[in-house]
Amino acid sequence: AKPGDFQQRLEKYSTYFTDGKLLEGDKWQFITNRKYGRLDQVPHKSFKGPGFLPNWFFAYTYPQNVNIDGVLIPGNSQEHNRVLPQPVFPTPLYETIICTLMFLGMWFFRRSIKTPWVMFGVYLMLNGAERFFIETMRVNNTFTLLGIRLTQAELIAVMLFLSGALLVLYAKWSGKPRT
């Protein structure tokens, strides 16, 4: 994206971001529940990706998304004819890559783990770390817990990681290794 693109899109689709609706034809259509009081409150993150990777690897607008979220695609009369007005990180792609690497790593080390439940505990820890990493890229509602600002998904990720760590410790202390 070029400098100023973000601000131009914010202004062009201001009612999408402030009220969650757009003027379609002659009536206002409710589109999204992501509403921000003012345009300067719309959260955003940017990243300058390596030149050898395509732009959609870092900024994707999800054209024809099944959530029916976004602005109408001009000239498209299909059922799913919307595109997000601002690009977002394609986190499902990142999750697919990370989880594939996680699977390959666990598959490689599967024979060296002899204690029951350790592999599942390691999976929970890896999955929790992956979820937390991914959720830091997403824009979600936050809440404060013990003075720490978290999203619900980040809290779940922390609980997954801690559950896995406790399971590994429990398995190591109480389990008998397989032969």
Describe the structure.
This protein has 179 residues and is an alpha+beta fold. The protein folds into 2 domains: 5-83, no CATH class; 91-174, no CATH class. The chain has 5 helices and 6 strands. It has helices at residues 5-12, 14-18, 91-109, 118-135, 152-174, and strands spanning 21-24, 27-30, 71-72, 82-83, 142-145, 148-151. The strands form 3 sheets. The protein has a two-stranded antiparallel sheet. Strands 3-4 form a two-stranded antiparallel sheet. Strand 1 (21-24) and strand 2 form a beta hairpin. Helix 3 packs antiparallel against helix 4 and helix 4 packs antiparallel against helix 5. It is elongated. The model has no long low-confidence stretch (mean pLDDT 89).
Record the SSE blueprint.
Elements: H1 5-12, H2 14-18, E1 21-24, E2 27-30, E3 71-72, E4 82-83, H3 91-109, H4 118-135, E5 142-145, E6 148-151, H5 152-174
Antiparallel strand pairs: 1-2, 3-4, 5-6
Helix pairs in contact: 3-4, 4-5
